[in-house]
Amino acid sequence: MTYFVKPHRRFMLTLCILSFALLQVLGIAVVIVYSIARYILTRTEPSTTAIMLVVIGSSALAGIFLLSLLGSKRAIAFHKEDVRYALGKSKYLIVLAFLQLIISIVGIVTEKQAIISTWPIAMLQTFVLCVFVGISEEAIYRGIVLGGLLARFGKTRKGFYGALFVAALIFGVMHITPGTELTSITIAQLVLKVLQTGILGLFFSALVVKRVNFWGAAFIHFLWDFILLSSEALVQQSIEINYVSSGEDGMAVVFYYVVIIALQIPLVVSALRTFKQTATPYCGWLSDIVVLNEQGNEVVVTNPELVAACNTGEQAAQAVLARLDPAQPQPAGVARFVSSAATTPSHNGSVPTPPAGFYDLSKLEDSAPVAPTAPVTPAAPNAPAAPVSSDLPHSAASGSAIQQPDDRPPRPAGM
């Protein structure tokens, strides 16, 4: 039996691009509406922190909603194992963040800056803001942007790496401060900022690719931002983020970026090691594993264990496929009948030719004999699916063959 990796929806990359554009428009619209409403009600202009909380909070909710539409519940499912894995892989990054925090606190002390009396409120605002930033940026840039690129180009190694680096570049470019006066110093700062943020994006992508889930990366992203910004909450009420300086400290900012980029090189090494260990075709959170049954019909089987095995390598996939009956609903994933219109059954008994756009995993054949099953008679149009026997637990075998809920158990080790 032949397996393929296929985007969860048709025109997935186009849908992801439109979703990304919609989120940018939404952010601008929220700023305008909130500012006008605030002025009408209070006759005051909102603070920078208030605007950021409203805009980024709404972006986080909208990003999760759009990601769920693009990839179903599986794309946004939360598993604590993902957070534990991300923490284990991010120890160096967290140490690097605390090192910068210590330097900032030393600067506050040496410059004798006064601690504001409302610092607990400012710290709470910073905490909430960083939570929103971590969720929104990971849902958007890793979940939607990277997910769409991998669904379209993850068939080959070149496409896989291309998707990762393009997504990291987009993430870096989106951190450029608009309206910056362009001089040789500010241009150098902008280029270095794109590179520094792109490295972080590449590392976060490695966490997401390994776990096929963005929540672990979102948590680490939150920690990184909160540790860096917490020192500012001690001395100023409103958070102002500016990555470029055109003043006397311009060269100091350039030097800072050069040092940070050098210190982030181990993150690149870690990310590349993860990418090298990931097999292609890659089955991501916006992709499905599909089988063509004996009648030439497509059956989507999205099982966490099978996804982890396919992304690990052919041998791991064969071990899972040897004991997996893709025609049956899986207790921990999705198994649904799709269509028979896209394929034509072969008359000589061979495996049907896959439709255009499928990723060929024909080498992933069962390495152990599978118990024979009763022949399947094609059902009449609109007729309910006939019950099938299964060696799965009763709760799984008795479920609908059209759609299974995404109540996934803890993932296998290493995913």
From TrEMBL:
Bias (Polar residues): 341-351
Record key words, sorted: Membrane, Transmembrane, Transmembrane helix
Segments for region (Disordered): 341-360, 369-415
GO biological process: CAAX-box protein maturation
A Pfam family reported for this protein in Swiss-Prot or TrEMBL: Rce1-like
Entry GO MF terms: endopeptidase activity
Segments of skewed composition (Low complexity): 369-388
Bias kind Basic and acidic residues: ranges: 405-415
Transmembrane segments: 12-37, 49-71, 92-110, 116-135, 159-178, 190-209, 214-234, 254-272
Cytoplasm in keyword set: no
Domain annotation CAAX prenyl protease 2/Lysostaphin resistance protein A-like: ranges: 122-227
Protein's name according to its UniProt entry: CAAX prenyl protease 2/Lysostaphin resistance protein A-like domain-containing protein
Organism: Atopobium minutum 10063974
